[in-house]
From TrEMBL:
Organism phylogeny: Eukaryota, Metazoa, Ecdysozoa, Arthropoda, Hexapoda
Keyword hit for Flavoprotein: yes
Family: Belongs to the GMC oxidoreductase family.
Glucose-methanol-choline oxidoreductase N-terminal domain boundaries: 83-106, 256-270
Cofactor: FAD
Name by which UniProt lists this protein: Glucose-methanol-choline oxidoreductase N-terminal domain-containing protein
Keyword Flavoprotein applies: yes
UniProt keyword list: FAD, Flavoprotein
Residue spans crossing the bilayer: none
Record-level Gene Ontology MF annotations: flavin adenine dinucleotide binding; oxidoreductase activity, acting on CH-OH group of donors
Matches recorded under PROSITE patterns: GMC_OXRED_1, GMC_OXRED_2
InterPro entries per UniProt: GMC_OxRdtase (IPR012132), GMC_OxRdtase_N (IPR000172), GMC_OxRtase_C (IPR007867)
Length: 580
């Protein structure tokens, strides 16, 4: 028996949840998700790092062994957490709401040839889904699906931003227009609980008769027909049975920047030579998976201070904190791990005449390292336990903090490829971190300026803040604090920020780099779109959750507009025929 819908959406993650919500208002929609319900503990913001790597809610992906990075990881493989449940990675992330920089979207518009991707246009889609805990203005709005506001516990955020001001980094709204700036973190939470895409877009839409959700449904292949490669449905595996479902209008891939390209290639859409090496018939020779980007980072520090103002997980997580969280939705448990963020412009950006486009991002972590913390970081990020224990051994429990430095506009490009024709195999993922020389230059500069911000600002000097003077394992042969040392430090402790993007980039149909056009339609196919992080031509300057929601909003509207236009055209043709 054929199972027919207007639309089939593959993936109920950050973008897929948005699209399912918008389309199911008027059309029959099937939403296929490989995972199940979100873990109830994921609603507690503070537990985010502890819940990474759980097999029921995380794909547990590991990037391929690296040569230039991830050297302190087990088998030199960086961990890439990816959500596998209703809500996807928005259930695993650190809740940070960061839209990116104006120049990101101006660049997207130029690359795609479509002014609809310019900043002033996409701004209204950011505002559409936002319920801002503050005054409404040109950049913010109320009444949207996602509650956005300051974290209840800001810790050392004010101290960090005061020090940043001494170095010419002003306080700023990092979700408005800025060049450089500092702010306490803004997160997606309401009453102290996480507001991921499931809670924002799916939970209250599940009652709709138009919306059909099938959990534990692993899509294995897209179905095409005819010389135009018209997408007509998908094949999926559920509870050990293979099933087919069909779409009368469109199939939409929202499986994320790793699984969307994998599904395309398994179905014959991708690099010809690669597909033919596995005997996969090629329907369209497109550069699928070849533009992978991620924000690579590290934890600079720890910095030791002489006052007990940092958060100590071993002594400060008291019963009162649990009561405060349950009754008021406040306190540490209602907050994410980071406390503040700052942006600045590197010398590399200036040399490229991009002085108005920041490329270094900082996150302030005002939390002590503890014995349990070391094991948790090692587990969630695949870092060798012995390395972390050796490095942090003499500082455990002491008043200290760290600054995560992020290369926010990387030039290195990785790729996603198949491991074989078996759709149940994980994709082959090569990060290629630090393969472009400018990325390591930006990383080193970011580390040095972070140390200066701490040790040369009067704000931190009042706390007698100093860099922990132990070399990171593997970097002992470099002079401590030298450029060579910081380069080694980054290559050893190379951390993802969960922002894998760009593997099916948007572009002009004539571009050799494009996989989708400016309306997110897969080239050389019909009735197939991609709406997720993979369509980014280049990664946004900052956290990607908010931009992915925006992509879901604008992609949904593009679909609805195309249906409206086709209906008007069909009606016009009928009228002309009647007139004739």
């Amino acid at each position: 028996m054929e199972d027919k819908f207007d639309f089939i959406i593959v993936g109920a993650g950050t973008a897929g949840s948005v699209v399912a919500n918008r389309l199911s208002e008027n059309f029959k929609v099937l939403l296929l998700e490989a995972g199940g319900e979100p873990n109830p503990l994921q609603s507690i913001p503070y537990l985010s790092p502890a819940l990474l790597g759980l097999p029921h809610t995380d794909w547990e992906y590991l990037a391929n062994p690296q040569v230039n990075a991830c050297l302190a990881m087990n088998e030199r493989r960086c961990s890439w957490p990816r959500g596998k449940s209703l809500g996807g990675t928005s259930n695993l992330n650190y809740l940070i709401y960061m839209r990116g920089h104006k120049n990101d979207y101006e660049s997207w518009a130029n690359i795609s040839g479509d002014p609809r991707w310019r900043y002033e246009n996409v701004l209204k889609y950011f505002k559409k889904s936002e319920d801002y805990d503050g005054e409404s203005d040109h950049y913010h709005s109320h009444g949207g699906n996602i509650r956005v506001g300051k974290s209840p516990y800001t810790g050392m955020a004010d101290i960090f931003c005061k020090a940043a001001e001494e170095f010419g980094i002003p306080r700023a709204d990092l979700n408005a227009e800025f060049i450089k700036g500092c702010s306490p973190l803004v997160i997606t939470a309401k009453n102290g609980r996480r507001v991921g895409s499931y809670g924002a877009f799916l939970r209250h839409a599940r009652h709709r008769r138009n919306l059909h959700i099938r959990k534990f449904a692993r899509v294995t292949r897209l179905l095409f027909e005819g010389p135009e490669n018209r997408a007509i449905g998908v094949e999926y595996n559920r509870h050990g049975l293979s099933k087919f479902v069909y779409a009368s209008k469109e199939v939409i891939l929202s499986a994320g920047a790793l699984n969307s390209p994998q599904l395309l290639m398994l179905s014959g859409i991708g690099p010809r030579e690669h597909l033919e090496s596995f005997g996969i018939p090629v329907l369209a020779d497109l550069p699928v998976g070849s533009n992978l980007q991620d924000h690579v980072s590290t934890l600079v520090g720890p910095f030791i201070i002489n006052q007990p103002i940092t958060f100590n997980p071993e002594t400060d997580l008291k019963p009162e904190e649990l009561i405060k969280f349950i009754t008021l939705g406040e306190g540490v448990l209602a907050s994410t791990y980071g406390q503040a963020s700052a942006y600045l412009v590197s010398e590399v950006a200036k040399s490229r005449n991009q002085s108005d486009w920041p490329d270094i991002q900082y996150f302030m972590y005002g939390t002590n390292m503890c014995d349990a913390c070391t094991d948790r970081v090692a587990h969630s990020l695949n870092v060798r336990v012995d390395v972390l224990r050796t490095f942090y051994r003499d500082i455990l429990g002491k008043n200290s903090f760290q600054i995560q430095t992020v290369v926010s506009r990387p030039y290195s490009r990785g790729q996603v490829r198949l491991r074989g024709r078996n759709p149940l195999l994980p994709p082959s993922m090569d990060a290629n971190y630090f393969t472009h020389v400018d990325d390591i230059k930006v990383a080193v500069e970011g580390a040095k300026r972070a140390v200066d911000l701490v040790e040369k600002s009067s704000t931190f000097r009042a706390l007698n803040a100093t860099l922990y003077d132990v070399s990171f394992p593997g970097c002992e042969h470099y002079k401590f604090r030298s450029e060579g040392y910081w380069e080694c430090f980054h290559r050893q402790l190379s951390l993802t920020v969960f922002h894998v993007s760009g593997t099916c980039p948007m572009g002009k149909p004539t571009s050799p780099n494009a996989v989708v056009d400016s309306e997110l339609r897969v080239l050389e196919t019909k009735n197939l779109r991609i709406i997720d992080a993979s369509i980014m031509p280049h990664i946004t300057t900052g956290n990607t959750n908010a931009p992915i929601v925006m992509i879901g909003e604008i992609g949904s509207e593009m679909i609805l507009k195309s249906i409206q236009d086709s209906t008007v055209l069909e009606y016009t043709v009928k009228c002309l025929k009647c007139g004739l």
